[in-house]
Amino acid sequence: MATIPMEYGLALAASLFMLGLLGLLVRRNIIYMLMCVEIMLNASGLAFVVAGSRWEQPDGQIVFLIIMTMAAAEVAVALALVLRFYQQFKTLDGDAASLMRG
User: Fold this and answer.
1) Across-strand partners of 93?
2) At a CB cut-off of 8 Å and minimum separation 6, what does 24 contact?
3) How do residues 32-86 score in pLDDT, each as one tens digit?
């Protein structure tokens, strides 16, 4: 069975991370910003899995499970905040958050 070189996996993870970072910086919609954070978390998880595979250690997969768990919790909290934000401002524009005070 052919294996994929570590450099390819890390290049893919870096590309996904940069795509997520670019989307996070460019988009103003809170839902899209949340999706970009998820892309960045998955890219970092991919890097851990690739590194763990290279060193033949299960540590990368364990860290990826922790990242997935953290991402699920983050999404649950963020979606609740997004719903509350939309109820208050009737928009999902991230710039409207600057109006939130105390």
Assistant:
1) 29
2) 33, 36, 37, 40
3) 999 999 999 999 999 999 999 888 888 989 999 999 999 999 999 999 999 998 9
**79, two tokens:** 């979606």
- Residue 93 above 80 pLDDT? yes
Distance, CA of 5 to CA of 29 (rounded, Å): 37
CA 86-92-98 angle, 5° bins: 95
What 8-state DSSP symbol labels residue 55? T
> What is the reported pTM?
0.83
Q: Contact, 37 vs 74, CB < 8 A?
A: yes
The set of residues, in sequence order, having a beta carbon less than 8 Å from that of 30 and lying 6+ positions away, is 82, 85, 92, 93, 94, 97
Residue 96, phi then psi, degrees to nearest 5: -70, -20
Looking at residue 94, its pLDDT comes to: 80
Q: Quick one: which of 52, 60, 44 has its CA closest to 6?
A: 52
